[in-house]
Amino acid sequence: MVVALVLSLSLAFSSAHPNQVICEHLKENECAFAVSSASRRCVLEKTEQDGYQCKTSDVSVDKISNHIETYACLGACGLERKTVGISSDAFLESSSLEKICSPGCSNNCPNIVDLFTNLASGEGTSLSDLCEQSANPHRKAAEISSSEAALGPASSDGDAEGKPHRKMEEVLSPDAAPGPNAGLEMHTLEIQVEAPSPSPSA
Q1: Where are the stretches annotated Disordered (predicted)?
Q2: Which of 117 and 10 is assigned the larger pLDDT?
Q3: Tens digit of pLDDT for each residue in 38-63?
Q4: Looking at residue 74, what DSSP letter applies?
């Protein structure tokens, strides 16, 4: 009788345990940056019906499981609760990168730090290097100015009028390859205008 009671209480506790995170069971405002009980990152995806669905990704996480990110960390790291997919776009925005590198985020939100550390590694750099560049904007601006001076006039690729942007590795590296128009000489076209003949006197 006692054994049966203990067993029933154990089953009731395990079924109602709040830390069993299953991505497909999470709501829209719980999915992004969550980690399942199997240590897989949850990802929010848009459906064909213009809705959202939480799914389990193939991205594994070390030493973190059963985790739904807190509003405190999302605010400290400058992230949105309804973020779709997993992307490194935050690295391209200086304000977003500053938030991720801030002490409030980097010292208190290991789940987010782990995510962006791996994203930076996938881009061929490190989060610490990106944070150092973010903390020294004057040095970064000097590197970009020096690079532009070495390349000469900017090419038509990557301007701000709807054309493709430069890749992140090109923006971060001062050794970016010159554009297709770099080094071309400018030629002045001379046009001779014939002076009008004087009108006959009356």
Answers
A1: 138-202
A2: 117
A3: 999 999 999 988 899 999 999 999 99
A4: H
The tokens for 126 are 């490190």
CA distance 200 to 102: 82
Considering the domain boundaries, does residue 150 fall inside one?
no
Query: Is 23 domain-assigned?
Result: yes
Contact 106, 77 (CB under 8 A): no
Per the structure, the count of domains in the chain is 1
Rounded to whole angstroms, the maximal C-alpha distance in the chain is: 134
- Domain, as residue range, for 41: 19-134
- Whether 186 is in a domain gets the answer no
Which tokens is 133 given? 């560049």
Q: Would you give the DSSP letter of residue 91?
A: G
The three state secondary structure string of 110-176 is: HHHHHHHHHHHHHCCCCHHHHHHHHHCHHHHHHHHHHHHHHHCCCCCCCCCCCCCCCCHHHHHCCCC
Instruction: With respect to residue 68, please indicate whether it lies within any of the assigned structural domains.
Output: yes
